[in-house]
Amino acid sequence: QLQLVESGGGLVQPGGSLRLSCAASGFTLDNYAVGWFRQAPGKEREWVSSISRSDITNYADFVKGRFTISRDGAKNTVYLQMNSLEPEDTAVYYCAAARKISMILLHLGDYWGQGTQVTVSS
Questions:
Q1: What is the pLDDT of residues 46-63, one digit of tens each?
Q2: Can you give the chain as a three-state secondary structure string?
Q3: How confident is the model at residue 122, as a pLDDT?
């Protein structure tokens, strides 16, 4: 049973913070590049951030300085720390894992989670 499960979403006020988790089951996430994506209603899915197998991190321009991606191998989990959240960050957030970071950037993950809702509103 190979799964990715996102958690940590919820309702937060503008300027607030959330930490999303992407937990793997049935495989070792340390052997994969992992990406976070989001999709807002009526919009296409967009890449948010990624971390390579060697822990090189990259961010979309619209989250640089606000979001941080990291991994905890012992917990087989990748995190997305989201600070200074804005209403425009409202979306369903998905994580994906792939053997190569290039596949993540092409939205071609081998495994995808079901998503967790993030709503930023006052």
A1: 999 999 999 999 999 999
A2: CCEEEEECCEEECCCCCEEEEEEEECCCHHHCEEEEEEECCCCCCEEEEEECCCCCEEECHHHCCCEEEEEEHHHCEEEEEECCCCHHHCEEEEEEEECCHHHHHCCCCCEECCCEEEEECC
A3: 94
